[in-house]
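Tutorial handout. Part one gives the primary structure; part two gives the three-dimensional structure as tokens.
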Amino acid sequence: PPCHSSTPRSCTMPFRVSVPMRRPIIEILCTFVELWHQDDRRILRTAVRSFVGIGPEGLTPVVPFRRLCVSLVQGNRDENTGVDEGAAAADAQALFEAGEGQWGTDESIFNQILVTRSYQQLRAVFEAYENMAGHSVEDAIKREFSGAIEEGFKAIVRCVRSKVQYFAKRLHHSMAGLGTNDKTLIRIIVSRSEIDLGDIKEAFQEMYGKSLESWIKEDCEGDLGDLLATLASY
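Part two.
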């Protein structure tokens, strides 16, 4: 699929602002890195290294999130489509021992496994974890982490389970309630338009009972709404 070179460049600014901007950072790094060219990745590496992360949470809680960003931007995810059930069971055990199985949490183990294993392999890891622990890996992440790093890890898990459902939820969240998050709406529709927007639209319809186009037309007025609805109609 084509790589939207503007996306990594647009990600450089949020690294210098406060924690409320972490959601677009998470979204971009968790879903686009594998599509970028090496030049784009170099731009993001520079941005990540300069990221200070000062916000309402202070500096220290953001450090694990910064490490996650650095790991994601390396683009080191395994591209092998096969599944090793034995390795999946071992990774599930490692995740359990790094979190619920000990006092304190070893964030580096979660980082290593969630960032480097293929999506197919991670699905097997998640299944093995649930069989072993009796609950999902998302529940474990919620118990063991908080703030930006929790959001980052959960975003990876959700993308592994279904990237189109992840984006459908992000689109719905951008329009639900009072007001519209125009930046999120524009970013997702434009950036995914030549990748998987058709699949995202189908997931949106199934999850929320209305088409994405109808949501946009009802939520966005004027030229912007017309333009986004037109893009979403293809």
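Part three, for discussion. The longest helix spans residues 119-133. Residues 1-6, 8-18, 52-61 have pLDDT under 50 and may be disordered.
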